[in-house]
Amino acid sequence: MRVLTNFKNFGMVFETIDVLKLKIRNRFLSKHALEIKQKFSNYLFFCIFAVRFLLKITNNE
């Protein structure tokens, strides 16, 4: 992270701050997306397991 010490270019300072906010938000969103993907994978695995279990029960009867 680079800190600007020249305050004559306020546009550059604000632009740098906006870029840092964007990087932080992207990290948060990517972490959140990975958590959602993991939860969906677990849910999908559970559904497939439940369907297979129910099919085995109905085939045995």
Would you mind describing this structure in some detail?
- The model has no long low-confidence stretch (mean pLDDT 71).
- The protein has one domain (9-61).
- The chain is mainly α.
- The protein has one helix spanning 10-60.
- The chain is rod-shaped, with a radius of gyration of 25 Å.
- The longest helix has 51 residues, at 10-60.
Strand runs, count:
0
Give the termini distance in whole angstroms: 66 Å
Please count the helical segments: 1
Structural class label: mainly alpha
Q: What value does the Rg take, in angstroms? A: 25 Å
Biggest sheet statistics: none
H/E element string?
A: H
Name some characteristics of this structure.
single chain; 61 residues; mainly alpha; 1 helix; 84% helix; rod-shaped
In short:
By secondary structure, the chain is mainly alpha-helical. It is 84% helix and 0% strand.
